[in-house]
Amino acid sequence: MKQRRGLTTVVGAVFFLIVIITAASYLTYSMNLFESFSENVFVADQERENRKKESFDISKLTIENNKINLDIHNSGDIPISFSRLWVENVTGVDQVYRFDLNNTVTTGNTYEDILQFLPFTALETESYKMKLVTDRGTTKEFSVNASTEPLHLQLFALPEAVPTNFKSTILLSVTNNSTQNTIYTNIQPILNVISLGAIAEFDGPIPEPHPVLEKGETAIFEWSYRISGDDGDKIRFDANILNGVPGNVVSKEVVVQIIEFAEESGSSLVSKFLTSESAPDDVLIFHKENFDSLGERQMFSSSAEDNVGEVIDFNLTNAVFYTNSDGNVTVNIPDGNWNTVIRYVSSPMPESLMHSGSNSETMSYHFETDLNSPLDTTTNTVMTLGTGSNRPIWNSTGHQGAGAYEFSGNQFASIAINDDNDLDTSPSTTSGWFHAYSSGPASDQIIYYAENSSGGDYLKIFLDPNGYFVYELDAGSSGQIATCTSTVDYRDDSWHHFVGIMPGENDCQLYVDGNLEDTDSNGGAGNINLNGDIYIGAQDDIATDGFNGMIDDIIHWDDYGLDESGQSEVSDLFNTNYGINAHLLDFEIKIVDEFGSDLGMSNKTISQTFNFPVKYSSDYGEYTAPISDNWGQHNFTAVTTEERIVDFGERLMVNMTYAPKISGNLNMKLAIDDTDIVSGLGNSFLQIPLPDIGLPGYGAYDNSDRGTISIFNPGPTDNWIKYQSRVIFEDELTGSPYAAFIDNSDGSPISPDQDSPPILEGSTAVFEFERPRAQPGNLSSELIPEGRYRMFVFLDGYDSSGNIFLQTTSLGIVRVT
Amino acid sequence: MAKHVKRRALATVVSTGILLSAVAIMGSMLTAWSNSIFATEQEELNTVYADGVNKLNEFLVIEHAWFGNNPSKFINLTMSNVGNVGLNVTKITLDNSIDKTNLIITDGGIVPNTVYSTEITYNWTTTDPIQVSITTEKGSLYQTYVMGP
After folding, report:
1. Rounded to 5 degrees, what angle do the CA atoms A56, A60, A62 make?
2. Under CATH, to which class is A364-558 assigned?
3. ipTM for the complex shown
4. Cα(A438)–Cα(A457) distance, rounded to whole angstroms?
5. Contact A15 B45 (CB under 8 A)
6. Does A542 touch chain B (CB under 8 A)?
7. Interval A57-85: pLDDT, tens
8. DSSP bridge partners of A769
9. How distant is the Cα of A4 from the closest Cα of chain B, in angstroms?
10. Selecting from 1.10.4100, 2.60.40, 3.40.50, 2.30.29, what CATH number does the domain A699-816 have?
11. CATH assignment of A56-144, given 3.40.50.300, 2.60.40.3970, 3.40.50.850, 3.10.110.10?
């Protein structure tokens, strides 16, 4: 029995084993499938993530010689492969073109001139719809030469009423409020001038087409016309977009208005202005004065005060501006765009590198604009680009979204050597960004080279035949060449940062992308006296060993070696963004109560935006304050979709706060209230949707007494004011005017027989005026009643060059009590 | 005594045979049954897996819609397969809330990184957005809106 039981047990066990093995196999197979499925889910997730990271912008679109110049910038975090471009002619022959591109663009780079070499002819007069498709399925559609849906157009005339023969500036604002997320390109404005009695003479220049208008962005086109005619004659301006939607037209009338005086001036009109132009109700200029503005600064519709202004250092304070409060007035502001325009200058260095004296940088090129002689922000040295085929090509979005120069083996730039870049004795530092093409040659490629033509000394920064980065110094000491070499081939179509330091004449340290790559220390003293020229992108002016790629942000310290171990200066410089993300600003635009306190209601908040990127701007000016009109300009736009009401006693507030970065933080300074800032859109200001009435200003006049105003003369001449000069108050609601003669200047009377004392260039004179009446000078006519008025100053005078001037300047909304 | 032993031996052999046969038959049946169950489950798992993975890796992009009106109004749709596996478009639906068209596609196989275009007669307008829905054989649904020019 024992044997039988054993045998059956064995047989049973075998079958049981088979079942167990089968079950185990099935389980293992299931687990493998599950693992494989998980991997597939992961891969699919990764693909989805990659799609999210894909981002590209149209950086340029123009039409020249019947060819479209289209540049696409990869602004995402991963390389993008563009697979197709669809082009549809929507005005001419209804045709659709499909172009297979199959071109890959790495992060931060630009795919240039896409349509230049494709068989496609474009006409300025026809409109096209285009669509780019990537191999991950991301698409971007844009319209060329047309708007396929009505755009938000606004037309402004500054001023709307002019004396005959005066200029009026016509501004067309085009906002892309597309509901279909369409991007419009090559926007061309059309302005038709229709005479309603007056004559308009175009005073140039013709505005250029706007290349790219993304959703939410605004393009502004400007024309200047000289208007002439009789009192009451008008000119109507009708503006629309070429190939726009029918009926998408805006109009504005400009009227010729002769101000009525007690006496006829009889003066001829010449444009010799004492102050800058006036501001309309929707433009609130940031002013430096702080009385009645809660200890912060004022904001109201009036021109800048003088040519001194104020520079606000964001490192020290935030910039807060308030309009005045008025307990008797409610201002209704319709929905629309709120544009904050800031004029500013960027710090040249991150905070750790803001040294003074000999420890500060002595040469700095950022290539933010394309010039034959690119600007050195230190102003110490002069660079000259090669000419003809030796000229490097400027790429407006080459590095960090901003300018860089591209070299293709045959280009160079030269910098004259002086005490600020000749090395001489240690220490010294040279840094920069480079982007070497993978298609570059297997030979030396020079980034920076200089030598002593007689002594054999040299400084050579280059990629060797292996693509390794080399920083090499020869101080003339026999057999002692300091060479620092990386171990990585940098011909990889990516941007890299280098810092080469000469701690001693025969020693070197090399950092790439913030990491120490190599050191070489030979010791001993030397003297590297470079002379002639430094060459960028090649070894000499015949482009020997030319570089293939892009170069940016070449900075040199002639007497200072960057301190990484103690101050992290190399890391800070590596993390510094000299491009479109140089600074981060928080924008808060709100309606607050009369004490500046938050009202706690969502309909009182216009914008609460954090970390808004502001581009680098320092090519043109000194950091302390540019001595000329060379401030950067950046716009922040918030959009409201419903009306906002500034109620009785409330104020409008703008608060700009700097959001510093942990490493590589560049400070910035804001310029306000300066009559010298006239380029671009002028001073820093907030433009709001046109309110029904003007927001309260800070001017006030007590009608029980004589009044006083100050007038600044920015030059270039000395000026005299004549008796016919006056102040004018126009009732905001009824338009009824009241006026008063200016009869005293700095204590000296002004009369028909006596002009004012000279207002010297750059000085301010204080003028007194009579109590304003319906007829100035007629004491029996109506005295100005209390209320809100638009105040103007009309000046009649002559200057030290013998020219006569007439000038009307707006002082904004004032309250007469 | 010896006879008695011989009888016992024969009975032992017979009973052993019967027992072995019974165990073998039961074992074989059990093995066959379990194999059958596992094979069925495995096949079902394979199908679910293949469907799931293929659906996961399917990705279709409706690249372009071109509106024509000669000789009658039509929409030319181009779609591309940007996924990792081939897919089969089986149905295209156009719907602008006024006019709905269902088109059964029989030649909609698209290998990865290629495009498929088809022209569909449709009475589009310039004011009503059209919902484009594309269904694949695996059951994936892709939708977008287009508007007549």
Report:
1. 140
2. mainly beta
3. 0.73
4. 31
5. no
6. no
7. 888 787 777 888 888 888 888 899 888 88
8. A707, A742
9. 6
10. 2.60.40
11. 2.60.40.3970
